[in-house]
Amino acid sequence: MKILIGSKNPAKIKAVQAAFNHYSSEYVALDIPSLVNSQPLSDRETIEGAINRAKGALATHDGKIGIGLEGGVEKTDFGLFLCNWGALVEEGKPPIIAGGARILLPEEIAKHLIAGEELGPVMDRFTRKENIRHHEGAVGIFTNGQINRADMFTHVAKLLVGQYEYRNRK
Q1: Can you give the residue ranges of the Non-canonical purine NTP phosphatase/PRRC1 domain (predicted)?
Q2: In the chain, where does DSSP find H-type helix?
Q3: Dihedral of the CA atoms 138, 30, 54, 109 (nearest 10)?
Q4: Distance of alpha carbon 148 from its chain centroid, rounded?
């Protein structure tokens, strides 16, 4: 089965491969735009980004399914929460959607996002590292390495795989 991944981000690729590890699959990572803001600021926008990546992957290449994974934030009365969403698209069927765990971002990070900055560069400055989003991610920093970005997206990807298997059971 050929699985099209709507991102070249290593954490997202690793997550999809881990979720589909019980399949004999070929993975194709594609640079598909989310068509939402570079820093999604709501669940709705983050879900739209994931769906757009999945649909875009399937529309531009030949494959069985398209997977889109998107990270964002959601503002609540308790503060700004990190969120992640995923979508799995098959030709002629509605998207399968799943969301993952959430953590409250520290105010010193949240204020930059509310002011219009993107989480990745903010985290790079905060940690004095480069490309945090391709490695442990903000979740890895703020959970002291207990959960990293690939782990968070693997959880979402497994939710997608399970729904895919349920929908296509015979």
Answers
A1: 6-155
A2: 10-19, 43-60, 107-114, 119-127, 137-142, 149-167
A3: 20
A4: 12
- How far is residue 158's CA from residue 93's CA, in Å, rounded to a whole number? 19
Q: Please, what are the domains in the chain?
A: 2-167 (3.90.950.10)
Side-chain-side CA neighbours of residue 2 (13 Å): 10
**Torsion-angle region of residue 94: left (phi > 0), alpha (psi -120 to 50) or beta?**
beta
What is the C-alpha to C-alpha distance for residues 128 and 55, in angstroms, rounded to an integer? 35
Enumerate the β-bridge partners of residue 89: 66
